[in-house]
C-alpha cells in the first residue's frame, strides 16, 4: 500500500474514491477522503442506480417527484455506506477480516493499519446511519406507513448481512438478500415512495439490475472461496461448489438480458434494447467464469487477489447505465409520440 501525500487529498482523491478503492494510507489523507475510501463508496453507485431506475419507472406512470427521488437516493447511498462500515466491524470482530484476508488486501480497512480510531469509526458510522434513518422517517411521513415495510426490511437485511447471531453471509443467504435489496426493495421501494402502490410490472423491472448486483457478490465470494472456507463461512459459492457457482453466475448474467427482454415485450419498452451495448462485457464475464481462478495473477494484472468480481462489477455498471439510458429514452419517445 502506498502512502498518500497532500497532492492526493481533496477533490482528486474524492473522485478517485468514487470510481475505485484507492490503495492509500488512510491515516494520512483528509477526513472526507478517508471515510469515502473506508466506506467503499465506489460500490455505493449501485444503490444510486437502483434509486434512479425506480424514479424513472415512476415517471413512466406520471407520479415522478424529483425531491422525493433525491431524498431516496441519498438515503439509500447513506444506508449502503453505513452497511459497509457495519459489516467491516462485524467481520473484524468475528476474526474474518484478519491481516491476511482478501478484504484487507484489496483495500484499506477501518481496523487495519495504524492511525485508525474506534471512536472516530463509531462517530462516523452513527452519523451516516442516523442521517439515513432520518430520511427514512421523513419518507414514511410523506408517503405513508407502507414505506416503513420497505425501509425496515432493507435495514434488517443490510445490518444482519454480517452481524447478529446468524449472519446471512455466513449461512449462504447473502446472495439472496442482495438480490432482494437491490432489486425489489430499492427499485420497488423508490417507485412506491412516489406512487404509493407497487404494480407487478415494476417488480419485473427490478429483476434485471437486482440480478446484476447479485453477480457482483457471487464474484466477490468466488474470489474469497478458499479463505472463507477456512474461516467456516458458508457463502453461496461454497454451498454450491466452486464450479457450479461460476456457471450460476454466468446464468444470472444472461438472465439480466432475458428479464429485460420480458419487460420489453410485456410493457412495450423497446428503448431498453440499449442494454445490448453491454453484451461485449457479458462475453468477457463468460470467458472469465468458464475457468477457475488462476493460482497467480497474469503478468501486469492489477487488482489481485480479486479476479472474478472486477469483470462482474464492470459488466453490471455498464448494464445499469444502459438500462437507465433506455428508460430515459423510452420516456422521451413516449412524450413525443
How would you describe this protein?
The protein is mostly helical and 337 residues long. It has one domain: Farnesyl Diphosphate Synthase (Orthogonal Bundle). Helices cover 68% and strands 0% of the residues. The chain contains 14 helices and no strands. The protein is globular, with a radius of gyration of 20 Å. The N and C termini lie far apart (55 Å). 46% of the residues are buried. The model is unreliable at 1-7 (pLDDT under 50).
**How does CATH name the architecture?**
Orthogonal Bundle
Structural class: mainly alpha
Class in CATH? Mainly Alpha
Weakly predicted, low-confidence segments:
1-7
Number of domains: 1
What is this entry, summarized?
The protein has 337 residues and is an all-alpha fold. Helix content is 68%, strand content 0%.
Set down the secondary structure blueprint.
Layout: H1 11-19, H2 31-38, H3 45-60, H4 66-93, H5 102-106, H6 118-143, H7 146-159, H8 174-195, H9 200-223, H10 225-230, H11 236-240, H12 242-267, H13 279-289, H14 308-336
Helix pairs in contact: 1-2, 3-4, 3-8, 3-9, 3-14, 4-6, 4-8, 6-7, 6-8, 7-8, 8-9, 9-12, 9-14, 12-13, 13-14
List keywords for this structure.
mainly alpha, Farnesyl Diphosphate Synthase, 14 helices, 0% strand, disordered N terminus
